[in-house]
Description:
The protein is an alpha/beta fold. The chain has helices at about 25-35, 90-105, 115-120, 125-140, 180-190, 225-235, 255-280, 300-305, 320-325, 330-345, 345-350, and strands at about 20, 40, 55, 60-65, 70, 80, 145-150, 170-175, 195, 210-215, 240-245, 310-315, 355-360. It has two domains: about 5-85, no CATH class; about 100-250 and about 290-360, Vaccinia Virus protein VP39 (Rossmann fold, 3-Layer(aba) Sandwich), CATH 3.40.50. The strands form two sheets. Strands 1-3-4-5-9-8-7-10-11-13-12 form an eleven-stranded mixed β-sheet. It has a two-stranded antiparallel sheet with strand order 2-6. The longest helix has 28 residues, at about 255-280.
Amino acid sequence: MNSDWISILKCPISGQDLEVLGSDEIMEINRDADRGQLWQVNGQLRDKGIETGLITLNRTYIYPVINGIVILLKDLALTRSVDFINELPVDKNKQLVQDFYNQKGWFTDEEGNYEDAVIYEDLRDVSKEYLKKCHNRVARYLNPNGLYMLDAASGALQFDDYLQYSAGYKYRVCVDFSFQALSEARKKLGDRGIYILADMCNMPFKDKVMDGFVSLNTIYHIPKEQQVLAIRELYRLLANKGKGVVVYDWYKHSQWMNFFLLPFRAFVFLKNRILSLSAKISGGEAPKKRLYFYAHTYKFFSEQLPPFKLAVWRSLSVPFMRYYIHSGLFGKQILNWVYNKEEKEPGLCGRKGEYPMFIFEK
């Protein structure tokens, strides 16, 4: 395993430095697994060995590396002593997100599109040029080169446009909660990527080690009480003179989308209430959530976060585009007009549109 970047990591439990396991120690660990003396920190017995991994300097916690992906979720850390078992409570909202992306979101359909994009993006030809130009905006606010570019909740790097953000960096550090996501990202980046299975609210990196970061359409899937913590973690990792971008979703706090989508949202609200009521009356199960989502206000973040600049990523939501933008109804012309307005007034559009960018700089 290439270990020139191990020095930026730290144990997500103890904060200690990590080092690569030697072959003799791996043999010892695997013998312990055979004897039933190897556990995950969450209390689950580990009955199989590891091929390679990292270990804390005091030899307490072991982190497997599987197919080039470093497992740095603290509940999946391994230990050879029951004294270090800590059965952590399961966060149901985080589990919902993790299960969706491991089981559905980062798998492709017959046309090669990820299910996440099929559900949550507008993949029609009429929208492609506008979306591409919005993706390109992110690069303006990042340093063009550096050593480490962090992609927090990288997903599968589903759009080629995303690759430009790290083009001038030695490594793109892909962090995600989903093993499937990182497996897909690795197919695209190969040795130019570092792949870390981790929790964004407990980043396993030392301070000020990233020359840049992006976090695209992710923070609002984190439990509402932890969203500020996740962004503060990103800021903690940003090196001096580093730059980072968070793309967020105002959803019901977007004045423009509220105006245009009010009748559609009212219909969806009523439909969901009727389905829930019908399930309750019939004794069936209520419709299950696909993903956790919570949107805070601009005021909330402005009072809680380090200083940031607000700009627009995209004013229009996917439902707006699906309802109103059509190739036979001057769709491309409308999108060009919207894009030009966004270019002239990025702050205003970032406040009142759907998707703002929080821009950080040290």
